[in-house]
Amino acid sequence: MTLNEALAAIKPADRAAYDAAKKRWDSIAKPLGSLGLMEEAVCRMAAMKGSAKVKIHKRAVVVMCADNGVVAEGVTQTGQEVTAIVTENMSTGDTSVCCMARAAGAEVVPVDIGVCRPVTGDKIRHRCIRRGTDNMTLGPAMSREEAVAAIEVGINIVRELAAEGYDLLATGEMGIGNTTTSSAITAVLLEKEPAEVTGKGAGLSSEGLKKKINAIERAIALNKPDKNDAIDVLAKVGGFDIAGLAGVFIGGAVCGIPVLADGFISCVSAIVAERICPAVADYVLASHASKEPAGRLVIEAMGARPFLYADMCLGEGTGAVAVMPLLDMALAVYDGMSTFEDINIDAYEHLQ
Length: 352
Fold this sequence. Notes:
Elements lengths: L2 H7 L5 H13 L9 H13 L9 E8 L14 H12 L3 H9 L1 E9 L10 E2 L17 H20 L4 E7 L3 H12 L16 H18 L6 H8 L2 H16 L3 E3 L2 H13 L7 E3 L8 H8 L15 H19 L16
Parallel strand pairs: 1-2, 1-4, 2-3, 4-5, 5-6
């Protein structure tokens, strides 16, 4: 499916299904709205799926893996060889998100969309656009055509997973240097100074942070990304992983599948997707507010409310996977608890 075909297929979430789910919640024998965001999430999932009968049969975290040429500017503590190592470890189940996903009953789906060297592993889905982006301080990170191709990878990965029976997805990423690209995109789309939206990522020194901010400032000044064209911003100062995740969010909207956004990088990808097609926002659930300086800023820009404020900033999809058990518990009450009518007591009323 092409990007244009996907955009033509997206419809707003079903308000009638949302209202039916809300009516079910209000009938359950407990104080109205007392499970807060857990209730809201189930109602929104009903709207996404077009039915008040909400079930989660299979869940997965899609981890887009790619390298970024900007690491040449000294913006990271480690080299980009780490991206390939961790990508391969995801295939063997030996990363943080893999351990958490096992506890949450989720499959980890690593996607090589632009790792700096070929990677091997039975679980890796090979969709490499090319072996890493260019250094955005010297020119665009990628061409517009490559950005669109990477978005289409994400869309079609979701379509594959939908065909395999997955009905809840989470987003994750692995790519040394991707907090730099995410901060650059944030600075442009939200019209903020790079220093305001840039953090130390995976353990930079204060001197390293200065280099990182400077690299972002130079990249934006050189490439002049158009804040009104999210694909232009993505191509000029983004990464293949971010583009792929934007496609995952768009794919979720196409297939009517809820997508849990992980932290800062995933939420930046969601903003890109929503700028491309505002209706995508109906299909995105924010999992947690990242510890990154712009973590809460991007959540607010999405108009979303996260489940967790846990000072997490690991990435890989760990925050999104952490929320899956909350959804399971919400559905346990939604599906299994008695109603006021069942136990013959008067229901609570919405009072002004």
